[in-house]
């Protein structure tokens, strides 16, 4: 992995042999110490696989109208539909198989969540690095913006942006990026402020390396551990926030239903006791968020130097 | 202290100005201002006349000044849907939201504190582990989905509580003066029926805070139990309950109450979700409905009010915090 290579580049070159304990190997073995975290990782991998493979493994393509039968609408979990196949998790009002719907919904939820977290990470980390490295006015300008934004709850900021931009997958991603970048910027700046006073940065400056090279090749790799932790947690937060926004009708459009929108669709049938339309997508959402958080918790423990034995 | 206060007020004013620019640019420049201010079925000539009458042919900064002048005078436009001043509309809904938010805060303290205290005093008992696992769930569960599940269990299957709405309200003379625009503020928590409507939404909104209070209390108790004064109190032969409730409890109360106070703002913000689930007629439901029908004057008014509300809360929290904890220095070097 890149981490091992980076670790090798930053610390004076340790000869690389296969059985030697590299930082990456140590990291993996420490992570595996927690059974709960490993369980979370396995569950999340399965969820990610389901999301990626949905078009091939889902029993039905929920958006192909030819495959739907309106007569099968709102069937209870486990009933056999008109076409002779079993709806294990029931059907929604259009006669869509909920299991397939959830698989396709996971795709959208995960794409939006991971995509926005990644973009926010790029933007936030760059600005945080810049703030720490440049200092002075640049630093205080960026950090003022971060403080201002973090004084408002994320849902409110997202709500405001979507009120300006309107619905749409891209708009949700933009809103989530704007909500999240500040967390990355603050984290990276904190670490980078400590790191930039180290000798290796001084050495790089003496070599007259270009600033961007020092920032991204020398400073950034050493700020990675807290960044990885916060990125993991932010993916879970982004997925939850996207679901909430979609539930409120401000998120993804009806043509690309995420888990949140599936839950919202079941809202009106809830009162007549047809729980499964909302219940199962919620369970899928819950499992996704909890598994990511379990992994994130363990990452935080492993990567935090203060907790080192 | 005065210098600090004045500096904070100037800062707050600056933030309000900055936010008004953002909201203005967001709604008036990105969106089509004509669409916001003129009914959509007006014809071309009417539109042009209105554009000139409303000063929309002016440069953007002049338009902003007009917007700002009106806003300072309390005129944030009229709602298309209700045909009432947007500000009045929001202030009418505000008591419902505040009631829900305070109800949630109350629940989070009366449920969270005892559970956290127990988990802190007996960290290894199975009950404590259950409490802590529950608090992790409280952090991870999506609020809106929990709300739906509450409705399903308590309203649909058990039929104990009403599913949506606010129920009977009752006005109390003492509270009338609280919001200047409404003729008489209605409160739910004063009638039994209102309380039964409030129970589920308040619990739903409180869920996240309960988890937070449990974790804070538990961490506080575990830290405080190791302090010398607790050891001394024990050595003195005081009863365990006296040590717990007088020596430990008092000391953890300050950080817990501060954090809960800090969370008031986010509770009000998150009530957007809870109000939508339970059809609670507060500000949050209003803003979601307004966004869905593009009632933009209401959107602008809501955003400006919520910004003001947040800045006030942050200011009050900062001041209270520095009063409660003398270690927080007021004169920052910046």
From TrEMBL, chain A:
> Which residues span the membrane?
36-58, 108-135, 155-179, 275-296
Q: Chief location of this protein?
A: membrane
PROSITE patterns for this protein: ABC_TM1
Keywords recorded for this protein, A-Z: Cell membrane, Membrane, Transmembrane, Transmembrane helix, Transport
Domain ABC transmembrane type-1 positions:
106-296
Q: Which InterPro entries match?
A: BP-dependent_transpt_permease, MetI-like, MetI-like_sf, OppC_N
User: What Pfam families does its record include?
Assistant: BPD_transp_1, OppC_N
Q: Which Gene3D superfamilies match?
A: MetI-like
| CDD domains membership | TM_PBP2 (cd06261)
Top-rank taxon, per record:
Bacteria
Q: How does it sit in the membrane?
A: Multi-pass membrane protein
The protein's location, in the record's own words, is:
Cell membrane
- Similarity field: Belongs to the binding-protein-dependent transport system permease family.
Q: What protein name applies here? A: ABC transporter permease
Automatic annotation (TrEMBL), chain B:
Cellular compartment(s): Cell membrane
State the UniProt keywords alphabetically: Cell membrane, Membrane, Transmembrane, Transmembrane helix, Transport
Matching entries from InterPro entries are given as:
BPD_transp_1_N, MetI-like, MetI-like_sf
What does the sequence similarity comment in the record state about its family? Answer: Belongs to the binding-protein-dependent transport system permease family.
Q: What is its main location?
A: membrane
Give the bilayer topology: Multi-pass membrane protein
Under the heading Gene3D superfamilies, the entry gives: MetI-like
Sequence intervals crossing the membrane: 12-31, 100-121, 133-156, 198-217, 252-279, 299-324
Q: Name one Pfam family in it.
A: BPD_transp_1_N
Question: Species name for this entry?
Answer: Neoroseomonas terrae
Source organism superkingdom: Bacteria
Keyword check for DNA repair, yes or no. no
Q: Which residues form the ABC transmembrane type-1 domain?
A: 94-317
This chain belongs to the protein called ABC transporter permease
């Amino acid at each position: 992995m890149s981490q091992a290579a980076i670790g090798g580049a930053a610390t004076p070159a340790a000869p690389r042999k296969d059985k030697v304990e590299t930082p990456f190997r140590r990291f993996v073995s420490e992570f595996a110490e927690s059974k709960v975290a490993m369980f979370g990782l396995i569950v999340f991998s399965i969820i990610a696989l389901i999301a990626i493979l949905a078009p091939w493994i889902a029993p039905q393509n929920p958006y192909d109208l030819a495959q739907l039968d309106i007569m099968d609408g709102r069937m209870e979990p486990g009933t056999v539909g008109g076409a002779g196949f079993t709806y294990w998790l029931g059907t929604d009002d259009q006669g869509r198989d909920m299991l397939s719907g959830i698989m396709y919904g996971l795709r959208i939820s995960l794409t939006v969540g991971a995509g926005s977290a990644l973009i926010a990470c790029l933007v936030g980390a760059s600005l945080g690095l810049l703030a720490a490295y440049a200092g002075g006015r640049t630093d205080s300008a960026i950090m003022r913006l971060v403080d201002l934004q973090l004084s408002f709850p994320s849902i409110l900021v997202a709500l405001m942006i979507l009120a300006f931009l309107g619905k749409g997958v891209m708009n949700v991603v933009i809103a989530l990026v704007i909500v999240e970048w500040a967390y990355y910027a603050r984290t990276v700046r904190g670490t980078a402020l400590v790191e930039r006073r180290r000798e290796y940065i001084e050495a790089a400056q003496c070599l007259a390396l270009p600033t961007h090279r020092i920032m991204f090749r020398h400073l950034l790799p050493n700020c990675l551990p807290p960044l990885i932790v916060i990125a993991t947690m932010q993916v879970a937060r982004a997925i939850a926030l996207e679901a909430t926004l979609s539930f409120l009708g401000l998120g993804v459009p009806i043509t690309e239903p995420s888990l949140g929108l599936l839950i919202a669709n079941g809202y009106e049938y809830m009162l007549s006791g047809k729980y499964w339309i909302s219940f199962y997508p919620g369970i899928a959402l819950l499992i996704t968020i909890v598994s990511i958080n379990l992994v994130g918790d363990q990452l935080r423990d492993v990567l935090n130097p203060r907790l080192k034995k | 202290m005065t210098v600090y206060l004045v500096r904070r007020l100037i800062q707050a004013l600056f933030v309000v100005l900055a936010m008004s620019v953002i909201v203005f640019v967001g709604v008036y420049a990105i969106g089509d201002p004509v669409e916001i201010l003129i009914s959509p079925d007006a014809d071309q000539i009417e539109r042009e006349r209105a554009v000139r009458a409303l000063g929309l042919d002016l440069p953007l900064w002049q338009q902003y000044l007009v917007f700002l002048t009106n806003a300072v005078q309390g005129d944030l436009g009229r709602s298309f849907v209700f045909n009432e001043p947007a500000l009045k509309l929001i202030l009418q809904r505000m008591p419902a939201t505040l009631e829900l938010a305070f109800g949630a805060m109350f629940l989070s303290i009366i449920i969270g504190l005892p559970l956290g205290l127990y988990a802190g005093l007996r960290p290894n008992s199975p009950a404590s582990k259950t409490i802590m696992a529950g608090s992790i769930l409280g952090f991870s569960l999506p609020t809106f989905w929990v709300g739906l599940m509450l409705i399903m269990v308590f309203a649909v299957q058990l039929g104990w509580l009403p599913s949506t709405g606010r129920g009977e309200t009752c006005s109390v003379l003492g509270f009338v003066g609280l919001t200047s625009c409404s003729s008489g503020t209605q409160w739910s928590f004063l009638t039994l029926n209102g309380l039964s409507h409030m129970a589920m939404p308040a619990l739903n909104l409180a869920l996240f805070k309960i988890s937070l209070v449990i974790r804070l209390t538990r961490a506080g108790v575990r830290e405080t139990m190791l302090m010398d004064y607790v050891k001394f109190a024990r050595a003195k032969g005081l009863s365990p309950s006296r040590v717990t409730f007088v020596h430990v409890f008092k000391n953890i109360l300050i950080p817990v109450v501060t954090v809960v106070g800090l969370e008031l703002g986010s509770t009000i913000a998150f009530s957007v979700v809870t109000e939508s689930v339970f059809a609670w007629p507060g500000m949050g439901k209003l803003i979601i409905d307004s966004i869905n029908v593009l009632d933009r004057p209401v959107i602008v008014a809501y955003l400006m009010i919520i910004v003001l509300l947040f800045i006030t809360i942050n200011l009050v929290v900062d001041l209270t915090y520095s009063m409660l904890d003398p270690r927080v220095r007021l004169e920052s070097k910046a």
